[in-house]
Amino acid sequence: MTPVHDRRALWIAVAAFVIWGLMPLYWHLLRHVPSLQIVLHRAVWCAILVAAWLTVSRGRGWLREVVAQPRLVAMLALSGLLIAANWSLYVWAVNSGHVVEASLGYFINPLLNVVIGVLFLRERLSLPQWIAVALAAGGVLWLTFNYGSFPWIALCLAGSFAIYGLIRKFAAVEAVQGLGVENLFVFGPAVLALAWFEWSGGGGFFSLRWGGWTDVLLVLGGALTAIPLICFAYAVRRVPLTVVGLLQYIGPTLQLLLGVFFFGEAFGIDRATGFAFIWAGLAVFAIDGYLQARRRIVAQQL
Asked: Rounded CA gap, 228 and 51, in Å?
């Protein structure tokens, strides 16, 4: 692999995280649409677009490869439900004035992955990792008791995505192919639910109620969620995981900035203090991961 290819993959990874970070702006354009219907449209159009992309790039056999493995099918069905729940909560949070707390969930997620590794994968934490987890836990407790509310949105987003990642870790399937199968499990129910909304008068797709521009945004919402994942799947195989691990904080950082400066959400000293504990934990975690990776590289060169 040449340095040019590495650099291209690096920028593709950056682009994926920037898209994820700026996504609240897109959902804000659809704030007049009920959050559940936004998520249902996302599921339908993402399933169609990803299935079409896989069929063009890999042929019709991409689905048969998975269907021939019942255990894998069951795992992807569960992961599909989890990611659907995650997206439902995320879109609702953005359009209900909780962008800052949603960003907190994605700051917490890497540390929650570490905890899951200890509980389910029998992994052992180093002292810096224990310190990182303790700092993050302290931040959550601070937000709960001093800010005045339990950060349930952040923890549910982090928890659902962490468990999703755990399932996908054991699901022996390529990332985009897995995404395609996951979406197929929610495609049918999503179509039926949208049809019911339209029939009962609660929808507005292809009607004068929302307008044609809204219809375009709902369709493109499927691509918006599929494209960064495809970019990420391309980049993660060509960029060191330590670099990807640091780049992933681009997304929640942009979301936090949008929440404070664009959406005008409160971010006083109490909330900032809780975030500071969590950011300190992330800093310890990131530095420890970087140093461990450097030690492994040096050991391999000896």
From this structure: 16
Distance of alpha carbon 137 from alpha carbon 108, whole angstroms: 9
Residues 6+ apart with CB under 8 A from 148: 270
CB pairs under 8 A, 24+ apart, for 164-171?
164/79, 164/82, 164/83, 164/86, 165/113, 166/116, 166/120, 167/75, 167/78, 167/79, 167/82, 168/79, 170/75, 171/72, 171/75, 171/76, 171/79
* Average pLDDT, integer, range 64-85: 90
**Whether residue 100 has pLDDT greater than 60:** yes
Kindly report, residue by residue over 138-165, the tens digit of the pLDDT: 888 887 777 566 788 988 998 998 888 8
Average pLDDT estimate for 154-181: 85
Q: What is the DSSP letter of 31?
A: T
pLDDT of residue 237: 67
Rounded distance between C-alpha atoms, residue 220 and residue 97, angstroms: 23
Other beta carbons less than 10 A from residue 34's beta carbon: 17
Neighbours of 25 (CB within 10 A): 15
Q: What is the mean predicted confidence (pLDDT) over 30-59?
A: 90
- Rounded Cα distance between 265 and 273, Å, is 16
Residues contacting residue 92 through CB under 8 Å, at least 6 positions apart: 35, 36
Question: For residue 4, what pLDDT is reported?
Answer: 44
Reported as a pLDDT band with limits 50, 70 and 90, residue 58 is: confident
- Is the Cβ–Cβ distance between 287 and 128 less than 8 Å? yes
